[in-house]
Amino acid sequence: MCxxxxxxxxxxxxxxHSVFTDxxxxxxxxxxxxxxxxxxxxxxxxxxxxxxxxxxxxxxxASALGLDFRFTxxxxxxxxxxxxxxxxAGVFNVGVSLESIDPKINEVIRPYPNGTxxxxxxxxxxxxxxxxxxxxxxxxxxxxxxxxxxxxxxxIVRYYGKRDGMMYTPQIxxxxxxxxxxxxDLLYVKDLNRLEGVxxxxxILKASGYNIHVTExxxxxxxxxxxxxxxxxxxxxDKPMLMEDSEPVCNIGTDTLFIQNxxxxxxxxxxxxxxxxxxxxxxxxxxxAEITRQVRQATRDCRRLCNMSCLRRTPLVDKIKTFLxxx
Length: 327
Prior knowledge:
- This protein is an alpha/beta fold.
- It has a single domain (3-326), classed as TIM Barrel, CATH 3.20.20.
- The protein has helices spanning 9-16, 25-36, 55-64, 80-89, 103-109, 115-133, 152-160, 181-187, 192-207, 216-229, 252-255, 283-287, 290-301, 316-326; strands at residues 41-44, 68-73, 93-97, 138-145, 166-172, 258-260, 263-265, 274-275.
- The strands form 2 sheets. It has a 5-stranded parallel β-sheet, covered by helices on one side. The chain has a 3-stranded antiparallel β-sheet with strand order 6-7-8, with no helix packed on it.
- Helix 3 links the parallel strand 1 (41-44) and strand 2.
- The mean pLDDT is 89.
């Protein structure tokens, strides 16, 4: 639920331009490999990744370096040939955004003509490429839980089932600062009982062996986000919720690095620790710098409740179990 749909003019131009241009990616991938070694997950998040002509080259380079490259797409440009090229290039994981298998719901949230059928066909192309080439990349169907589609997540999980390589990620809707009131009114979950029911259904599905990428803590917190936030119509930016005191400390600063519009960060909510490009330091040098140690401690002290799938606290054991289930 990014700002692409409602920003206008100069605000939109700023959002779609970045100082981190495509030509910087090859060097950055090499520095990631130098810092982290084989098996490191590299996630590319930038609008619609398949619109980049260099995407397949980055997947090939990452694979050659022993890195696990993944991205999330709407699937509109993934036909049978493109799915084949992704598989042969060595992609690790392809996330596909799908809010419902019912076009009447999905195409209200994602208004693209015949978009539901196109996205679902893209998922099938990816599944068949995986099976045909006997590769082990996974397909992660990602669904934003809104007032319009709460029960759709369970329907999606049951539709695709326990097929090899399939996983599912629920993401609760969080309004961004500046989101038009009519959009918030359309998507904001209004019935807490429904949300709690969906969380309970997700627990049952997980216990039944479906590969759902959310922890028990994550389920508790997505309900908490709305239970406390309904009073103030929170946004993820200006009115953040806090975790319960009993929840474990955040470990994002110990195993994650973000490059956001050229700024190197341990977490998007904390100050940058370096820059790419323009900085004289490599990512390894930035990672070991004193400022990084200070910001890392600040992330561990932070009690912000984060439900975005790239930020929320997911124990390493849970990640390993999910990987083993889909491998």
